[in-house]
Design brief:
Elements (H helix, E strand, L loop, with lengths): L1 H29 L10 H19 L3 H26 L8 H22 L14 E4 L2 E4 H23 L1 H9 L3 H6 L4 H26 L11 H11 L4 H22 L3 H16 L8
Antiparallel strand pairs: 1-2
Helix pairs in contact: 1-5, 1-8, 1-9, 1-10, 2-3, 2-4, 2-8, 3-8, 5-6, 5-8, 6-8, 9-10, 9-11, 10-11
InterPro entries: ABC_transp_permease, BCAA_transport_permease
Protein name: Branched-chain amino acid ABC transporter permease
Family: Belongs to the binding-protein-dependent transport system permease family. LivHM subfamily.
């Protein structure tokens, strides 16, 4: 019986880790590669959840399909936000404390607007797979967790391929290390950072759809992920998408095992304890340089 519980806890943890990876992907790009502390990222994920909720309630379209269709909208939103951030803070060398305050403001503005429009009630979506599960022997795969996890893995694979195989992707990796070198190659670092930040914002659409499939949401749901996403990003190694995925899976499995055998109150303590232990041994993170 204990072995069955352990196996299912690990399976649940891997699926939870897949969701955490999707939530953290944008932070890995904006914070890890661009050094932009977008503390509002979880708030925009919740915005993605509400967009999925509205369209699903009106037309019955699957939330993940809605998120894919909404990717250009969030990309454009990211372009606009980075434009304001650059001209107001980064251009004047004030992108540290004042930039952080800017994103804090965006977080609370987003949350307040959602409260004004939707109130503080929980919202859910209706899909064919919510409530179903796949059983293989003693192993059980809840579809509301499995489907988002699998799509998240596909999204990570696409991001990694884009970053490693395309000119823009390699330029994004370079701009975090040596912007002056890019300028010598006639590449505008600001344009590259704008594209990268827009990509990070586009991931919010996907993560928001995953969130509302997995659990009911309300405007303040993003707050509980603020500490976790930055912890996963740092644990995996700043700027490393594979490291972020590994760290997310590790945190998911540890939280799931701790919740199964010791209770949910232990999950955050154990996961952040692992973060501190890892950074004590390897300050750059699991795959950091």
């Amino acid at each position: 019986m204990q072995f069955d519980l352990l196996i299912n806890a690990i399976i649940a943890g891997l699926m939870l880790g897949g969701f955490y990876a999707a939530v953290t992907a944008g932070i890995s790009i904006s914070f890890g590669m661009l050094d932009i502390v977008n503390i509002a990222h979880p708030g925009f994920i919740v915005l993605g959840s509400y967009i999925a909720y509205i369209v699903n309630a009106q037309f019955g379209i699957d939330p993940i399909v809605i998120a894919i269709l909404a990717l250009p909208v969030f990309f454009a939103l990211g372009t606009g936000i980075y434009g304001i951030y650059f001209h107001s803070f980064e251009k004047h060398g004030q992108d540290a404390l004042r930039g952080l305050a800017f994103f804090f403001g965006l977080l609370f503005v987003t949350e307040v607007l959602l409260i004004l429009v939707f109130g503080v009630d929980y919202r859910t979506v209706s899909t064919a797979y919510v409530g179903g599960s796949l059983k293989i022997g003693v192993m059980e795969f809840p579809l509301r967790m499995l489907v988002p996890a699998l799509v998240s893995f596909a999204m990570f694979a696409a991001l990694q391929l884009y970053m490693s195989r395309t000119f823009i992707g390699r330029a994004v990796m370079a701009v975090s290390q040596d912007p002056q070198a890019l300028e010598l190659m006639a590449v505008d670092p600001t344009r590259i950072k704008r594209i990268a930040f827009s990509i990070s914002m586009a991931t919010c659409a996907m993560a928001g759809a995953f969130l509302i499939v997995i659990q009911p949401v309300l405007p303040s749901s993003g707050r509980e992920y603020i500490g976790r996403v930055f912890a996963i990003c740092v644990l995996g190694g700043l700027g490393s998408l594979p490291g972020t995925l590994i760290a997310a899976l590790l945190i998911g499995v540890i939280e799931s095992i701790a919740t199964t055998f010791y209770g949910p109150s232990w999950a955050p303590a154990v996961s952040f304890g692992l973060l501190l232990l890892t950074l004590a041994v390897r300050p750059s993170g699991l795959l950091g340089r």
